[in-house]
């Protein structure tokens, strides 16, 4: 799994051309709207210059000349400029929201599709809750990149350039003086930015830890584990510690740089003082008007604010790129199991399943399967037996390509399963595992997952065959009963029978069944077994066998040991070999055989 990175650390942001190009790719479809934003921003930055310049005319002309008409006209124009820039602001907000939300929309869809195509291996390794974090908070963070970073940059730059230009045009000497204080607040602002970035990064990590605790302990199985081992106190204090750390960091974050801010605003107020001083001198010299001094001071804010903002831009860019990077890390994980370019669809019906020298490992250097070869003829039952951890489940997982074999070949009907489309392969296989998954909906919804257009009769027929119809009808709400998370409101046997009914509705030619019924009581085991027998009729089946009757009636038994097939054949053949199977049979199934004989005797004896 070389390419897969499952950690969620915030690496160093990669500001390479390729990365920026990739980010830009997401904005490309919205270039027209982005251009409109730029136009609006240019207009607002010019409009913003007007009021100070109009004030200059008021002070220098309207007032000394006692010209009421001019005064009203100038005030009106100033008001008009302010209103116009307000209206443009609304338009800009709309465009911002449109662009950012559209990008989030595109990314979410792309991410969902990508995650759907990730192999099972990904979901067995990824930290619980991480997928949700990526899908929600990370991608949602992207919307801030446009409306925050990019628009901020453009609007500040425009404001800075237009204001500086105007100041120089009005009086270059005064303009130079006003620039004099700029370096004084660049340094503190930079410092503040980097401190905040560091704290923000730490905060994000802590929040993710905290979410992890929540997901671990407040999910169904986590909750049960915590309760049954009475770990509430410990978990509570673990949570409280994480929570306290996050809170402390968040307070630090909002306080970070407040001292610098104070310095910055002090420095910023030095600017106007210098203008009054030097501008006053120029006025006395007869170089400049009073109105110009007032306009200058009014424009200073439009000069200093963008300088401050732009100083922090680097931090913003780093933050934005890091965000994109976290998402790209996910996109870059190759879905390992996908349709081959030349994959064809086909049916599995009537084809034999053949393993040819198949090898597989979950981890490097630890083979789970080696040299597995066997053939399951159509319509026959192949039983897998062997100690726990031998590799039986792994063999069954390779058939629907939940994992891909590392070496060797698996064919169905002579076709390599890798040349079949995943859709046709998986629609041909019904999998009944020990761990029955029902989602939190009604029984009907859970059943219909197998076949959207199943009729009421199909549904009932499947449930009757799975020995569960009567149970369902006995529930107050029948098929409309809600089963709870993972089907918690049903017993193990009921869940298994519903999942068997679901596979019956799907009606695939190949059945893979883990018949472990050890968690069931005798009565429900009886029903589950009956249901399983119906399920396997006329199918090609691979069964992880736990019952004597299964192995006795199996057409072929594979004895799996340490990832290899130790022996294969029919029950009687294997028994006479006096090998691994005989040993296993005596230990695991011998007792069942004795019990069965007893049961038969009891049945037979008159009471
Ligand atoms: P069986 O079904 O015969 O009990 P499995 O096929 O489940 O055995 O497991 C075979 C071996 O592979 C075991 O050693 C098990 O620990 C290992 N294994 C199973 N699933 C995984 C996994 N997702 N990641 C790593 N190792 C696994």
Automatic annotation (TrEMBL):
InterPro entries the UniProt entry points to: AAA+_ATPase, ABC1_TM_dom, ABC1_TM_sf, ABC_transporter-like_ATP-bd, ABC_transporter-like_CS, P-loop_NTPase, Type_1_exporter
Keyword Nucleotide-binding among UniProt keywords: yes
Main location: membrane
GO terms, molecular function: ABC-type oligopeptide transporter activity; ATP binding; ATP hydrolysis activity
Residue span, ABC transmembrane type-1 domain: 35-319
Keywords attached to this entry: ATP-binding, Membrane, Nucleotide-binding, Transmembrane, Transmembrane helix, Transport
SMART domains the record matches: AAA
PROSITE patterns noted in UniProt: ABC_TM1F, ABC_TRANSPORTER_1, ABC_TRANSPORTER_2
Keyword Ribosomal protein tagged: no
UniProt-listed SUPFAM superfamilies: ABC transporter transmembrane region, P-loop containing nucleoside triphosphate hydrolases
Gene3D superfamilies: ABC transporter type 1, transmembrane domain, P-loop containing nucleotide triphosphate hydrolases
Membrane-spanning ranges: 30-50, 70-91, 167-187, 259-278, 284-305
Name of the protein in question: ABC transporter
Protein's organism: Paenibacillus stellifer
Native organism taxonomy: Bacteria, Bacillati, Bacillota, Bacilli, Bacillales
């Amino acid at each position: 799994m070389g390419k897969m990175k499952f950690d969620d650390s915030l690496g160093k942001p990669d500001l390479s051309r390729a990365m920026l190009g990739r980010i830009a790719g997401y904005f490309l479809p919205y270039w027209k709207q982005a251009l409109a934003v730029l136009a609006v921003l240019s207009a607002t930055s010019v409009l913003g210059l007007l009021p100070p310049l109009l004030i200059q005319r008021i002070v220098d002309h309207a007032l000394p000349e006692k010209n009421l008409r001019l005064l009203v006209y100038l005030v009106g124009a100033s008001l008009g400029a302010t209103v116009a820039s307000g209206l443009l602001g609304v338009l800009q907000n709309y465009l911002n929201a449109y662009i950012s939300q559209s990008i989030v929309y595109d990314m979410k869809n792309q991410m969902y599709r990508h995650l759907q195509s990730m192999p099972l291996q990904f979901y067995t390794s990824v930290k619980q809750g991480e997928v949700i974090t990526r899908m929600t908070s990370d991608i949602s963070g992207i919307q801030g990149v446009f409306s925050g970073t990019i628009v901020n940059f453009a609007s500040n730059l425009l404001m800075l350039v237009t204001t500086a230009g105007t100041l120089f045009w009005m009086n270059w000497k005064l303009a130079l003086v006003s620039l004099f204080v700029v370096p004084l607040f660049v340094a503190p602002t930079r410092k503040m930015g980097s401190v905040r970035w560091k704290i923000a990064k730490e905060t994000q990590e802590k929040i993710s830890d905290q979410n992890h605790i929540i997901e671990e302990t407040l999910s169904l199985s986590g909750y049960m584990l915590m309760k049954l081992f009475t770990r509430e106190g410990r978990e509570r204090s673990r949570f409280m510690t994480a929570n306290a750390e996050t809170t402390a960091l968040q307070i630090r974050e909002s306080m970070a740089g407040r001292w610098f801010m104070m310095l910055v605003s002090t420095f910023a107020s030095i600017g106007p003082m210098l203008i009054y001083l030097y501008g006053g001198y120029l006025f006395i010299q007869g170089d400049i008007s009073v109105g110009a001094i007032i306009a200058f001071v009014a424009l200073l804010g439009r000069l200093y604010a963008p300088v401050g903002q732009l100083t922090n831009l680097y931090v913003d860019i780093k933050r934005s790129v890091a965000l994109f990077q976290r998402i790209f890390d996910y996109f870059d994980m190759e879905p390992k199991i996908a349709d081959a370019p030349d994959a064809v669809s086909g049916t599995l019906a009537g084809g034999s399943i053949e393993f040819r020298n198949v090898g597989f490992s979950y981890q490097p250097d630890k083979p789970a399967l080696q040299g597995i070869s066997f053939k399951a003829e159509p319509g026959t039952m192949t039983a897998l037996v062997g100690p726990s951890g031998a590799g039986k489940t792994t063999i069954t997982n390779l058939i629907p390509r939940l994992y891909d074999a590392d070496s060797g070949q698996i064919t169905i009907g002579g076709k390599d399963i890798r040349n079949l489309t995943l859709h046709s392969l998986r629609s041909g296989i019904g999998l009944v595992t020990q761990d029955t998954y029902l989602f939190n909906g009604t029984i009907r919804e859970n059943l219909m997952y197998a076949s959207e257009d199943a009729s009421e009769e199909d549904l009932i027929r499947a449930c009757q065959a799975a020995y569960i119809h009567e149970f369902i009808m006995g529930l107050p709400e029948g098929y409309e009963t809600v089963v709870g998370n993972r089907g918690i409101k049903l017993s193990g046997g009921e869940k298994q029978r519903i999942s068997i009914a679901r596979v019956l509705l799907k009606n695939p030619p190949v059945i893979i069944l883990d018949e472990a019924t050890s968690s069931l009581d005798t009565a429900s085991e009886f029903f589950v077994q009956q249901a399983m027998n119906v399920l396997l009729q006329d199918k090609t089946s691979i069964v992880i066998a736990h019952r004597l009757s299964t192995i006795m009636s199996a057409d072929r038994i594979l004895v799996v040991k340490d990832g290899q097939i130790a022996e294969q054949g029919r029950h009687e053949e294997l028994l006479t070999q006096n090998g691994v199977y005989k040993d296993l049979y005596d230990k695991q199934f011998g007792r069942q055989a004795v019990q069965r004989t007893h049961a038969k005797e009891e049945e037979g004896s008159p009471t």
